[in-house]
Amino acid sequence: MKEEWNNRLWMDVAAHGIAVWLIRIGGTRQRWSLRLLLAIFPDVVGLAMCIEEIYRPGNSLLWILGPNNDGTSDDVLAEVNEIIERAPTPFGNDNFIIVVERRASLPGDGNGSDLTPERVESTLDHRTLVEKMVLRGSRWNNWKRGNSKQELLEVLAKAIPTVETSATLIRAAVMGRSMARLAARVA
């Protein structure tokens, strides 16, 4: 049983790596490559499209420790709510994912009083990932009628920017848009 789980984990990691590679080489942008890949690896193409959606610039928020950052977890929840509520759900796909990443401070950050969003964004790749929390669900069942908002508040309470972890990156996406983009690119 343990070996079976390890094989599945390895396959998931490999599929994720292949999906990221396809995005980087532009394999998800061209109609002929998408059609070929859909015939051979439909799951990997679906994963690549979902990863593209999660990393779209409009789907991310940066919560930093700084002089002008008086934001609370309720403010972040309101922004995430806006992203999830306003996203279209073509084909009835209203599954959402929220990824919260706590990033470590850099030596030059000091106590965080001089941090600006531009400085943090330009150094985000150099900041060590301290903790990553993921929340998934259905917009209708879990977000609108369920307890996902409360779960997100609990996650955000653990991710408040501090001197040690001065940046928290929140990505929120509804997966329906990725499937609509896939259909438009293949058609």
Structural notes for this entry:
By secondary structure, the protein is an alpha+beta fold. The chain has helices at 2-25, 31-40, 42-54, 73-86, 117-122, 139-144, 148-158, 176-186; strands spanning 60-64, 95-103, 129-138, 167-174. It folds into two domains: 1-54; 57-176. The chain is built from eight helices and four strands. A four-stranded antiparallel beta sheet has the order 1-4-2-3, with helices on both faces. The termini are far apart.
Topology diagram in text:
Layout: H1 2-25, H2 31-40, H3 42-54, E1 60-64, H4 73-86, E2 95-103, H5 117-122, E3 129-138, H6 139-144, H7 148-158, E4 167-174, H8 176-186
Antiparallel strand pairs: 1-4, 2-3, 2-4
List keywords for this structure.
8 helices, alpha+beta, globular, single chain, four-stranded antiparallel beta sheet, 2 domains, 187 residues, 51% helix
